């Protein structure tokens, strides 16, 4: 297309890899420059798109509402999301939704360092919508494919700067783990994929 | 405006002639022994004594040197005979370039202003591009469906969309050739990750030929007006690698959301707020996967056909691919 929009792409990543993405960086010194988390397979992410099962919602706020949502992927790993007064739409969705439900979430990665020095990675949702199982399945296959492509690029002879950054920042993490997770995620759909799918509710 | 400025607009200045002379000199550099000054002098005679337009003078001077050197026009540097690049519709990617094109007139529109003689779409196998022909240029009429060699057209850009302008120096030669006009439609698949502001139930300016979207009841051009309701979605499709901004017009929006204009008006009336419509649309469509096909307009894809991607996914294919890595 003619010009490149500056909007950040929503990366596809399973929870296991996302929760390991504790390293953040900016591309410039500008205060308003976007913050990226570095995925351990060697890609930067300023936005992610997740479809999974909302298993639990809880208002963890003290003075004002602050909603936590747990969204689980086919590997059984959990994305944590938090929405407060500055994400009114997402907060009201978490308030109203009855788990379990399939949800699609567009959001920004956020990291938080605990007192023990661990880094927790979570999602600050821009939007949360209810979707059907076929959309979830499509996301699982797409996310597996994207993950495998990243693992392949990670092992390449001529790695790009983010792969090199990942090799340096995550010396103890192995992309093999994420490759295995991606294959298992597709396998979890196999067998159910040929059965009758429920009609989309939307 | 002072008389000198006025003159400069209608007649080429000495600097223009000098530029032409320099360019001609470059084209013949190796072939004949002639100085820039000599060329400029010949141009000057044609333009200022014989009142020949600069472009015509340039042609004439080049012709005579071609004869002198025993060369063909094609032998000249720059390829196009007058130094312009021959470009395809889809290749036009910067404004203010002088180019040549071989195109078919795909569509002629009603000019909105007396200053415009003709306006419409030109096409070749790579796609289409808008053209404008000024009245004051006094060029031949272009006919819809006919093919032409156009020399010396100027590219222009407005909000990321390119067009060409036919001007006083443009030459139009009809050619006996049918040009197959390419389909410049784009198909994009991805999840709808955002519905931007300015979507849902909107109001447009009712003035003739003005379809601007009103901001707080005001049109940028016509001020406060009684707007006409319309439906539109400005959405973002994202496949994890690229984002594409998509515009759904009224019909496409109704098909996508199942919300018709009348229904949308009722919803807004009940809530005393138009934003409920966009909210409802977000709820119905965000996070779902779509395949959208349509022409592009600047950075936008205009949705002609939209297909919701539901139903079973091919896990077998994905597994084979996964295990091969």
Task: Draw up the topology in text.
The complex is a heterodimer of chains A (202) and B (325).
Chain A: H1 15-19, E1 24-26, E2 35-39, E3 43-45, E4 48-59, E5 67-72, E6 78-83, H2 88-96, E7 101-113, E8 119-130, H3 133-154, H4 161-169, H5 175-189
Antiparallel strand pairs in A: 1-2, 2-3, 4-5, 4-7, 5-6, 7-8
Chain B: H1 3-10, H2 14-28, H3 36-49, H4 54-69, E1 85-86, E2 98-109, E3 116-124, E4 127-134, E5 147-158, E6 161-175, E7 186-195, E8 200-204, E9 218-219, E10 223-224, E11 228-238, E12 243-248, H5 250-257, H6 261-271, H7 275-285, E13 289-294, E14 296-297, E15 300-302, E16 305-308, H8 315-324
Parallel strand pairs in B: 1-2, 4-6, 12-15
Antiparallel strand pairs in B: 2-3, 2-5, 3-4, 5-6, 7-11, 7-13, 8-11, 9-10, 11-12, 13-16, 14-15
Helix pairs in contact in B: 2-3, 2-4, 3-4
Describe this structure in words.
- The complex is a heterodimer of chains A (202) and B (325).
- Chain A is of the alpha+beta class.
- Chain A has a single domain, classed as Beta Barrel (OB fold (Dihydrolipoamide Acetyltransferase, E2P)), CATH 2.40.50.
- In chain A, 30% of the residues lie in helices and 30% in strands.
- Chain A has a 5-stranded antiparallel beta sheet with strand order 6-5-4-7-8.
- In chain A, a hairpin with a 5-residue loop joins strand 7 and strand 8.
- In chain A, helix 3 runs antiparallel to helix 5.
- Chain A starts with 14 loop residues before the first helix and ends in a 13-residue tail after the last helix.
- In chain B, strands 7, 8, 11, 12, 13, 14, 15 and 16 form an 8-stranded mixed beta sheet that branches.
- Chain B has 3 domains: 73 residues, no CATH class; 91 residues, OB fold (Dihydrolipoamide Acetyltransferase, E2P) (Beta Barrel); 123 residues, OB fold (Dihydrolipoamide Acetyltransferase, E2P), CATH 2.40.50.
- Chain B has 8 helices and 16 strands.
- In chain B, helix 2 packs parallel to helix 4.
- Helices cover 29% and strands 34% of the residues of chain B.
- In chain B, a hairpin with a 3-residue loop joins strand 9 and strand 10.
- At the A-B interface, strand 7, strand 8, helix 3 and helix 5 of A face strand 7, strand 12, helix 7 and helix 8 of B.
């Amino acid at each position: 297309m003619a010009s490149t929009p500056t909007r950040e792409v929503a990366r596809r990543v399973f929870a296991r890899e996302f929760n390991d993405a504790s390293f953040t960086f900016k591309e410039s010194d500008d205060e308003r420059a976007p913050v990226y988390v570095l995925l351990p397979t060697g890609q930067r992410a300023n936005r992610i798109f997740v479809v999974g099962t909302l298993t639990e919602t809880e208002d963890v706020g003290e003075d004002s509402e602050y909603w936590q949502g747990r969204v689980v992927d086919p590997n059984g790993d959990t994305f944590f999301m938090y929405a407060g007064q500055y994400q009114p739409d997402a907060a009201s969705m978490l308030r109203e939704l009855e788990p379990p439900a399939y949800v699609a979430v567009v959001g920004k990665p956020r990291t938080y360092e605990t007192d023990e020095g661990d880094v927790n990675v979570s999602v600050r949702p821009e939007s949360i919508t209810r979707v059907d199982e076929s959309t979830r399945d499509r996301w699982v296959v797409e996310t597996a494919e994207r993950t495998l492509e990243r693992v392949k690029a990670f092992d390449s002879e001529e790695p790009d700067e983010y792969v090199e950054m990942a090799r340096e920042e995550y010396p103890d993490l192995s992309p093999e783990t994420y490759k295995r997770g991606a294959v298992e995620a597709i396998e979890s759909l196999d067998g159910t994929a040929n059965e009758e799918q429920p009609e989309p509710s939307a | 405006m002072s008389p000198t400025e006025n003159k400069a607009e209608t007649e080429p200045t000495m600097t223009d002639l000098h530029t032409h002379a320099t360019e001609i000199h470059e084209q013949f550099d190796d072939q004949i022994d002639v100085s820039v000054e000599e060329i400029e002098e010949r141009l000057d005679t044609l333009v200022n004594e014989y009142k020949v337009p600069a472009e015509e003078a340039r042609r004439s001077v080049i012709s005579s040197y071609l004869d002198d050197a025993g060369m063909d026009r094609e032998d000249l540097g720059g390829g196009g005979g007058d130094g312009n690049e021959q470009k395809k519709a889809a290749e036009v990617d910067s404004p203010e370039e002088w180019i040549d094109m071989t195109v078919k007139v795909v569509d002629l529109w009603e000019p909105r202003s007396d200053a415009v003689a003709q306006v419409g779409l030109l096409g070749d196998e790579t796609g289409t591009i808008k053209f404008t022909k000024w009245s004051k240029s006094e060029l031949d009429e272009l006919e819809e469906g006919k093919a032409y060699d156009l020399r010396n057209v100027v590219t222009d850009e407005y909000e990321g969309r390119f067009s060409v302008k036919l001007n006083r120096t443009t030459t139009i030669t009809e050619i006996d050739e049918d040009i197959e006009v390419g389909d410049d439609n784009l198909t994009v698949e991805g999840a709808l990750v955002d519905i931007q502001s300015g979507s849902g139930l909107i109001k447009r300016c009712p003035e003739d030929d003005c379809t601007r979207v009103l901001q707080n009841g005001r049109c940028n051009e016509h001020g406060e007006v009684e707007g006409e309701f319309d439906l539109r979605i400005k959405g973002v499709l994202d496949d994890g690698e690229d984002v594409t901004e998509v515009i759904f017009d009224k019909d496409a929006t109704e098909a996508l959301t199942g919300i018709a204009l009348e229904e949308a008006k009722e919803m807004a009336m009940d809530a005393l707020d138009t934003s409920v419509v966009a909210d409802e649309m977000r709820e119905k469509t965000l996070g779902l996967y779509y395949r959208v096909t349509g022409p592009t307009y600047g950075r936008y894809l205009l949705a002609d056909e939209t297909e919701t991607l539901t139903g079973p996914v091919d896990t077998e294919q994905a597994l084979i691919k996964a295990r091969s890595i």
